[in-house]
Specification:
2 domains; alpha/beta; Rossmann fold; about 290 residues; 12 helices; about 55% helix
């Protein structure tokens, strides 16, 4: 998806807030601001937001000697959601349609995104639970999704953010309970980038108990096919169903994976308008 001016400004502002909270008094901060501003203004329109975010991380490494570190926040959100896992799963299972209920929670959890919101805290989990209670699952898309699941043997699930991965796991559990013949392959990032999920996060939340976990081979906050490893591309090419969580996966994949299902929260004005949503609405779409 093309790089909008809103994307450039959003990434600049959110990353400045995060980095200033750590390096606010550092004399290198001005150099970082200038370099990132120039990068955001000069990035080609052919880029998508995840590629720009990776480039910003590269600037951070060159000036401060390392990536923007979200490890503490990631561990905290993984632990907090894991503590709620069985209680939420009980609610999902008690619903009239557990798979549909699982989709609501998975979509709502996409709120946990440090690329868009740099000041997430304890109240964020309450926001996720509230969003799940009012989430809407498009019936036409859902009917297509369940029709595909009925005859599917493999489902590739492309994950997005920390914490969120716990509710992805619950949706996977609900799908496997309803369609026990399906094998689920979970794809995480190939290295640390923002608060996106890696193998470390998958291990922290026990994702391997619900799915076969692989990484994409690329430290990009999305699934950028030209840089994915051969294993990921092979699974995607042969999957009966593909679920892509979050805006990063939507921005890198939409229009390139015919029939993929996208679940996310509309955290950007142009995304909300594109799909006839309000800002912060959840969305479940198929290309």
């Amino acid at each position: 998806m093309k790089l909008y001016d809103e994307c450039r400004d959003c990434l600049y502002n959110s990353q400045m807030k995060k980095v200033e909270s750590v390096y606010g008094g550092d004399q290198r901060m001005q150099s970082f601001k200038e370099a990132v501003r120039a990068l955001c203004d000069g990035a080609p329109d052919s880029w998508c937001a995840p590629l720009l975010m990776r480039a910003i991380d590269g600037v951070h490494q060159s000036i401060f000697g390392g990536i923007i570190d979200y490890s503490a926040q990631k561990t905290a959100f993984n632990a907090a959601l894991s503590a709620l896992e069985e209680g939420i799963y009980a609610r999902i299972c008690s619903a009239a349609d557990p798979v549909k209920e699982g989709i609501k929670y998975a979509m709502a959890a996409n709120y946990i995104d440090y690329a868009r919101l740099s000041d997430l805290g304890e109240g964020s989990i309450r926001q996720v639970m509230t969003a799940a209670s009012r989430a809407y699952v498009d019936e036409y898309v859902y009917d297509r999704f369940t029709d595909r699941l009925k005859g599917a043997k493999t489902l590739v699930y492309l994950h997005d953010n920390c914490g969120e991965i716990v509710l992805d796991k619950l949706l996977i559990r609900a799908i496997k309970a309803a369609y026990p013949a399906i094998k689920v392959i979970s794809v995480v990032r190939g290295g640390p980038i923002i608060n996106d999920v890696t193998r470390t996060d998958a291990d922290e939340v026990g994702l391997g108990k619900a799915a076969y976990v692989i990484d994409s081979g690329a430290a990009i906050p999305g699934t950028y096919l030209p840089e994915c490893n051969g294993l990921t591309r092979a699974f995607l090419n042969n999957a009966d169903v593909v679920v892509a969580k979050g805006l990063g996966n939507f921005e890198t994949l939409y229009g390139t994976m015919g029939g993929a299902y996208y679940m996310f929260m509309c955290k950007c004005r142009h995304i909300a308008e594109r799909f006839g949503k309000q800002l912060w609405d959840t969305a479940f779409i198929c290309d």
